[in-house]
Every structure is written in C-alpha cells, then in structure tokens.
Amino acid sequence: MSCTLGEVKNRADLIIYWGGNPAECHPRHFTKYSLMPKGKFVPNGRKDRTMVLVDIRETPSVKAADLFLQVRPGKDFEVVTALRALIKNQRVDKDRLVETGLTFEQLQDFAGILKKARFGVLFFGMGLSMTRGKHMNSASVLTLVAELNAFTKFVAMPMRGHGNVTGSDMVIRWTTGYPFGVNLCRGYPRFNPGEFSTVDLLLRGDNDAALILGADPGATMPQPAIDHLARIPTIVLDPKVTHTSQLARVHITTAATGISAPGTAYRMDEVPLPLRPPLKSPYPTDEEIVRRIRQAVQGKPPWLPNSNGKRRLV
Amino acid sequence: MELNVVKNATCTFCGCVCDDIELHANHERIVKTKRACILGEAWFKHHTAERLYPDALIDGKPASVDEAIEKAAEFLYRADMPLVYGLSNVTCETQREAVHLAEIIGGVIDSHTSL
Ligand code: SF4
Q1: B30: nearest Cα among B53, B12, B11, B3
Q2: Which numeric CATH code is attached to A5-158?
Q3: Is B80 part of a structural domain of the chain?
Q4: Quick one: B61 and B98 in the same domain?
Q5: Best mutation site among A28, A36, A267 for ligand 1, i.e. most ligand atoms within 8 A of its Cβ?
Q6: Would you say the CB of residue B16 lies under 6 angstroms from ligand 1?
Q7: What pTM did the predictor assign?
Q8: Would you give the distance in Å from CA A14 to the centre of its chain?
C-alpha cells in the first residue's frame, strides 16, 4: 500500500511523519511533495492538510506540525500496537500506556484523526526502522496502515535517504528477485538478512575480497567490520579518495553521479528519473569501470563452486 | 565566460531526488544553483570536474586505470566469497553492471538497505 509522491501532493489531507526529521534531512519534502503544494483534491494546500509528527525528541520539523507526539525511545512498537487496538475500539489498558510516554487521551485523539482522514499517508524514517524493534517496527506500521484501509484510504512510504538507495533495491530485485543482501556464491541467488547482510558478513570475517562503490563504509560501519575490510583486498570506486580508499588495496577515481556521470536514479516513491549532468569529468564512470572489471574476470579460466565452499577450476 | 545552463537537472543527494533544479556551470564547476535546498546546493558545488585525485591507487601508490582494473579483477577472481557493497551513490545502470559482476565472481551483493 504505497503510492507516488504525486498522489500525496494531489490527495493527501493527513500527513504523518514517524521517526524522521524531514526539515533537516529531506528539506524540500514539505514544499515539493507533501505539505505545502496545492493539489487537485486539496486545493488550498497547507490549509487543507493536517500534519502529525511522531518522534522521540523535538526537532526543527516540529514547527511544521499541527500535532507533535513525543514517544519514549524504543516504544514505537507499543504505540503502534495500542493504535491498532484503538481504531478497532478494542480495550486498551491505560496503565500500561504510561511507559510509551503518551497518554490514553492523546492516543485516542490520534486514532480519531487517523480514521477521519480522506487520504492519509504515513512516512516512516530511520528513527523507526533503525531503533529497538527494527523491521518489526516497520512491519507494525505497515499493518496499522493496512488495517486503516477498512475505514479510509491510507498509504505508507519509507523516507529513504542516501541518493539512489531506492534504485539499488529496484535493480537488485528485478535482476535477482530479492532487494538486497543477495548471495550468488552458489551460482543462484539466496536471500537471508542477518546472514548475508554486509555488517554480519564482515563481523564474522566471511568475505575474502570486497568491491565498494557509491558508499564509504570506512566512515560509517562498526570498527570490527572496518578492520576486516582492511585485512582483505578491498577495491574502492569513488569520485574522491575516501576513508575506505585509505585502507583499500585498489582505489579508482570515477565521475560523480548526476554531476559528471549520466544515468538514472530512483526517487523514494520508486519513480525513476533521468540525471542531467552539467559537467564533463576527466575520470571514467563507475558503470564503465565495473563493466571493464567484469570483462577482465571473464577473460580468466572459468570455475565451479565446490562443496567445501572453495573454487575449482574447470 | 559562457555558462552552460542545465534546466531540470536532478539532485541525488537525498531520497527526494528533486528534478527541477537549474544549474549554471563553467567547464570546471557549478557556480550557481536554483531551487536546490541547502543540502542540494552544497552537494552540487562540492563536486567539480577538476583533476584533484590520481586516476587510481594500488597499495597507496598512483597507478593507471588499466593496471588497477587488472588488479581488481585478479582479487575478485581469486576470492571464494567476494562482497560487492554500497550502490547508494551510483546510477541504476552501474547497479545493473554490479549485479552482473557479482554473478560472474560468485559473490554477495548488498546495499545500504541492509544496515
Ligand atoms: S534539492 Fe534538497 S531536497 Fe531535493 S533532492 Fe537535493 S538534497 Fe534532497
């Protein structure tokens, strides 16, 4: 149950941001897509819309909100569960709500606002999906949104950051069938988050070489994972010499995406957009380098996976 | 000097991917942005077309792109479980190439989504 940002602009009269700070992290989200624009069914723009912000602390986004609900850190799942009960008029134990940081009345009001909307949209951010509960939190808000469709039209959308990370989900999905963390060691795709996710692989020391592109894990990952990247031959493609480049065996400088390298990027609502780079780079594009590495590998003798996990030349 | 004006350029700094940005650039850098937010403007002005870094580095020493590609291919070919990771700040076309490479080297492909 998602939609495009164009539908949000034209239809949404209730906008919820949960665990995110769009004013600072997605500065034009309010003005271009969600809150401010005048739309077909919300002709007065901001006046026709209600905005509720749910977060664990006050951020600059609070100024834009009609209602701010401050949840105690790590209690999002409990709040969502209470809301799911309240919209169905099920009994909720008031005493047990105390630990969420919200009162029964606040949640009752919020449940009313949710049901009254003509078209509601819930944007959820990393504050929800990256804290205690993780994907269980995301799953619970998606369930809440699904259940709200018994009363009105409601959609959910993750607030994706990091440039074209949505594009990588899309591309890996249509090429392998899974969105991320796909293991092709056996020659066919296997998917198991937690087992084949990068941080887990590196912490266990499973990988014996790495190619890093469009990211700088040397600046963001847990130290033991970085240590493993420094132990194995790591190759970095990046427009700059990054933290990761400094611990890598090979670094290749490439053109900057969207600035001097053309191509396509996906918006957070999964709409692909063409890039229009204004500059010409003296460096090759990532696309060209990856293709040339692949061609160089294909020039070598083929191998087959062995039962012990090692390679066997054929 | 004549500036190259690009209308409706696309910013890839955050997930909004605004595609209504106007950019004014000379042959080396973007000098003016219209409609971009502060993050977007900083992003566009930060990257230039100057030659600031060596083409490639092998073990910290400048090398040619051809040598670096050969070395990279050798490392990935020899590995039993290579990793291809990142993919946030690259185009979909690059991502597709990366999946193909991961298949040929029999590796794991992963992005920021897994964090
Ligand atoms: S202009 Fe600002 S809001 Fe738009 S994509 Fe760039 S960083 Fe995001």
Answers
A1: B3
A2: 3.40.228.10
A3: yes
A4: yes
A5: A28
A6: yes
A7: 0.91
A8: 22
